[in-house]
Amino acid sequence: MQPATVLSIRGGSAVSSSLSRYHRRANAMTSPPTRASVFRYLRYEVDDRKSELRCHYGLDDHVFEERITVGPGDWASPAVHEAARIVHMLAGVSYYKAGAPPVIDLGAVPVRPGERRFLLDYYVNGLGEFAYRNSIDLDLRVVGGSDPAPRAAFAPSAGRPLIPFGGGIDSIVTAETVRRARACDPSLFVVSQAGQRFAAIEDAAAVTGLRVLRAERALDPQILRSDDFGFLNGHVPVTGILSAIAVLAATVYGNDAVVMSNERSASSGNVEVAGRMINHQYSKSDEFERAFRSLLRGALDPPPEYFSLLRPWSELAVAAAFASLRGFHPVFRSCNRAFHIDPAQRLATWCGRCDKCCFIDLVLAPFLDAGELDAIFGGLEPLENVDLLHRFRTLTGLSSDTKPFECVGDVDECRGAVVLAAARRDRQGSVVLKTLVDELGPVAGDTLAATRLLQPGGASNVPEPYATARRLG
Asked: Which domains does the chain have, with CATH numbers?
């Protein structure tokens, strides 16, 4: 084992303590939360008989175990063990969050050069929203860690991409683009809690006609009873965890690519505080994607290609592509109420009132008839509800409220959607759109700027075999 290594983040790429002080001033009546002392990475175990990975962590006196089951395959291979190590590293954030201590102890867990820095950036930036909401300084130190084995050889089958699938417009467009544009054998990949399946995912997956490969996460029961134990709650970078599990599945099944569905505005933050940007979608961002690709290159030889097919595109362009995929219109749902962990509170329809419902309605409005959208939302279309005008003002930057901590597009995309939707003949009577156009002023007349959002732009990691998919959907 190598000597204990200490790496800390204070300011710099971290959400600095000044951010948290700002938040406490804004919430002077809120007492700082009680925090744990140390979070420990204990060990991980690969059980090839059960096709299962078990990850163990400690938080002061609490010990946690998470079980991840993927499916039968060559679980004894070095590549699977390397991918399991990466899952162990990223999945720990769900348990660290319970007490948010200032020290992360890697113990004897193998860690490669550069991975401590990756881990700290992942924790600090991925938990930026959590820290902001809980008034916590994430000045972290990481200690410990041992030397890993050399890079593990991986021999995937060519032309077998794995597409993580959530049933929303982004992953649907990715799946259809890959299926139509490449002579390959794609599979969808769905991760769910043990014993749970969501109709909002299953129904859309069935329409694709593609094979569905699966993984199950069994979170430690303690973390599901966080209130009973006095644990802290908040958002974690779940896409980072799911990305690592997808790479594990790729090594088990021999897939040569993990194709994500994160468009370019996922890199845009929600609120800047003390010079730092907090991004609800950090683990969907280009920054995370590039860092994770680098981590994979250091662990697997060669690694599966990990990239987002939608990175060059805006949410507006993705919505335009989705509008033509009519077979999915009756079954897709992006409303968070469709994914409630309690089945009794889970909706089989759109709620029609939340920020996600408002955003999806807005970006589809330029491309679908008002009657079609009314049918999709079951008569609860948000754009026809004047009581939701405040939500649309926030999405379009017309209020002082922070951009919603949801997976929604940026202000420019939302404004472009208003401009294009308001120009439609079937939307001339929309009170919500007319009000937004009036309040946007000259911006509402810039149709050219809105249409530019339909074109690809910016750098991406899309490899050449997939770059031929110049059109979405």
From this structure: 7-143 (no CATH), 152-312+460-467 (3.40.50.620), 316-452 (no CATH)
